[in-house]
């Protein structure tokens, strides 16, 4: 299985409280496994507040819905040994 790397990393975002924010990270291969999103070292799951999806097979997205002050912090995306943060 080829080593999946991060082609385009996360970018820092500023949003207003109550808005949605979307982070994108592009990887080198489709169907990447061992992918993880975190906020302040807490793993995020796909639910009504966090939408985790993959677009066009290689672009992994995380949308945080109706952000609050508690959502301030570092977002990280990991695929295998590679990581990007914002």
From TrEMBL:
Gene of this entry: Obscn_2
Domain of life: Eukaryota
Keyword Cytoplasm included in the entry's annotation: yes
Main location: cytoplasm
Gene Ontology CC: cytoplasm
Stretches assigned to the Ig-like domain: 2-86
Alphabetical keyword list: Cytoplasm, Disulfide bond, Phosphoprotein
Protein's cellular compartments: Cytoplasm
Gene3D superfamilies in alphabetical order: Immunoglobulins
PANTHER family from the UniProt entry: OBSCURIN (PTHR35971:SF4), SI:DKEY-31G6.6 (PTHR35971)
Pfam families, alphabetized: I-set (PF07679)
Keyword Nucleotide-binding in annotation: no
Name under which the protein is recorded: OBSCN protein
């Amino acid at each position: 299985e080829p080593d999946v790397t991060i082609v385009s990393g996360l970018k820092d975002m500023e949003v207003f409280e109550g808005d949605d924010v979307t982070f994108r990270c592009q990887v080198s291969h489709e169907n990447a496994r061992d992918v993880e999103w975190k906020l302040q070292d807490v793993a995020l799951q796909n639910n009504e507040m966090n939408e985790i999806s993959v677009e066009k097979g290689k672009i992994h997205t995380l949308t945080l819905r109706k952000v609050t002050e508690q959502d301030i912090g570092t977002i990280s995306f990991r695929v295998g040994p590679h990581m990007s943060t914002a």
